[in-house]
Design brief:
alpha/beta; four-stranded mixed beta sheet
Length: 504
């Protein structure tokens, strides 16, 4: 008689169902696992055997065969321990077979039988909901998985708890969703002295999820401004939190007992490899651009990143998703992020500072910024110069609006966009608008159209640049509370396109 349990194997953010079959047959005593397991899965037999021994359950002197079906799909990870143990316990008639067959499980076993949390509980819960199974997982992963309200999640501390649950001795209560609430940070936009234009650009970028390039001398406040961006962004919606947390679950970043509603803020170092930024590695895992999904990707010292890494950003910026292709895997990850880039104007950093002379000007700046290709620079909606701040200005009182005030305006603008794109799955914010939808929502008035036409002819805007100006103008109108895009909105949007930061 074959006993069956169910678990999942991960392909990107998707979890594919795996049937764990166990047969106990007469023959030479042996315990084998087949079905294309990796090293961690093959070692599960030793962990399961020892965990059962700690519960005073002895394996029979028979041949035990575990088959992971479909057998042609690679199985990776230690989360196969619990389903293998369940199928074996069902085959030994210690727990009911029908109860096990209605459960999807995952978890790593310690040698004493306790359950260790594993990655991917949230995608596993989604897969269990599709087949109307109960999800059984380690107790530490239960708060994360319980966010999928279409499935019952049972969190167990040990294999002994699982046995008592299925035999009816001590049923386990369903897990409840957990949410991690971060303490309010002390970083406020008012901490930045001056830089009102850069603050305004930051507000526009946050309102419409536009990509922003900041260029300025060292110490002018570029990183300081970017660090205050999370304080003006609205929290993740329930749907966005689920999308983002599925990626973070696969990366093992949900280790605080639940889901975080704070938008991701990723800031990789400029020495990061292409696999770290875009995704890849042996398991074709998500990279920084996917971990920043629905959040911010801040790339400081932007021209210092390898040219190959920068060029791979072009397609994900446009499509909002990235395909990680490896010899044994082709995995697609979502990556709808807001790119904030910061750069010095030249190698020495002081090309635009009148107080310091650059001996190689202007070639120094042309060579340095030339590391960013024209097509990539064309994808930035907003470009702003961040001038140096005199040390005498640092003693002046704080100026401008606080982060809470700016966050309120950003929230109102985003609420208008959510109402505008309600019912459309492909568009959420102004940065997503294209084609007829963009023409419908962002067509400027006669004066604005005339201005944009003159600018396009005079400065040779590309079609992409033309549309990005319209998107930014629509966001500025939303911040202004205007239903129509007018001449002042277009003029401000154009000013951020024609700043001193030129296309390479």
């Amino acid at each position: 008689m074959v006993a069956r349990a169910y678990t999942v194997a991960f392909e990107g953010v998707e979890a594919r169902q795996v049937e764990v079959q166990c047969a106990v047959t007469p023959g030479m005593p042996a315990f084998s696992v087949v079905g294309l397991p990796d090293k961690a899965v093959s070692e599960a037999r030793d962990r399961v055997r020892t965990a059962l021994s700690s519960m005073a359950i002895a394996l029979p002197s028979k041949r035990i065969t575990i088959n992971l079906s479909p057998a042609d799909m690679p199985k990776e990870g230690s989360h196969f321990d619990l389903p293998i143990a369940l199928s074996l316990l069902a085959a030994l008639e210690i727990i009911p077979k029908d109860a096990v067959e209605g459960t999807t499980s995952l978890g790593e076993l310690s040698l004493d039988g306790s359950l260790v949390p594993v990655i991917g509980a949230l995608p596993a819960a989604m897969a269990a909901a599709e087949v109307e199974h109960t999800l059984l997982c380690p107790k530490a992963s239960g708060a994360e998985a319980a966010w999928v309200d279409m499935v019952q999640v049972i969190g167990a501390s040990s294999l002994a708890d699982v046995v008592r649950h299925y035999t009816g001795q001590s049923p386990l209560p369903p897990a409840t969703p957990g949410e991690v609430v971060q303490a309010a940070g002390g970083r406020d936009l008012r901490d930045v002295k001056g830089q009102e234009r850069a603050k305004r650009a930051l507000e526009i970028a946050a309102a419409g999820r536009h990509h922003l390039m900041m260029v300025g001398t060292p110490g002018s406040g570029k990183s300081m401004l970017a660090a205050r961006l999370p304080g003006i962004l609205p929290p993740l919606t329930a749907a966005e939190a689920l999308e983002t947390s599925m990626i973070h679950s696969l990366a093992g970043l949900l280790d605080e007992g639940g889901i975080n509603r704070t938008r991701p803020f990723r800031e990789p170092h400029h020495t990061a490899s292409m696999a770290a930024i875009v995704g890849g590695g042996r398991r074709a895992g998500p990279g920084e651009i996917s971990l920043a999904h629905n959040g911010v990707l801040f790339m400081d010292e932007f021209p210092e990143f390898p040219r190959t890494v920068l060029e791979t950003l072009r397609q994900p910026i446009e499509s909002g998703e990235v395909m990680v292709a490896r010899a044994n895997a082709h995995v697609k990850y979502p990556c709808r992020f807001m790119l904030i880039a910061a750069a010095n104007p030249c190698k020495c950093g002081y090309l635009s500072d009148p107080a310091r002379a650059c001996t190689r000007a202007p070639i120094c700046g042309e060579d340095y910024m030339g590391r960013i290709s024209g097509p990539l620079m064309d994808r930035f909606d907003l470009r702003v110069e961040v001038p140096p701040v005199a040390f005498t200005d640092l003693d002046l009182p704080s100026s401008g609006d606080s982060s809470a005030t700016v966050a309120g305006r950003v929230q109102q603008a985003r609420a208008a966009q959510q109402a505008r794109f309600a019912g459309r799955s492909d568009m959420r914010l102004n940065a997503d608008a294209e084609g007829e939808a963009l023409e419908e929502i962002a067509t400027p008035d006669a004066e604005g159209r005339a201005l944009l036409t003159r600018v396009a002819e005079r400065f040779g805007l590309s079609a992409r640049g033309y549309h990005r100006v319209l998107r930014v103008a629509r966001t500025i109108a939303d911040l202004d509370g205007s239903d129509a895009v007018r001449h002042p909105h277009v003029a401000e949007a154009v000013s951020y396109r024609l700043t001193g930061v030129k296309d390479a």
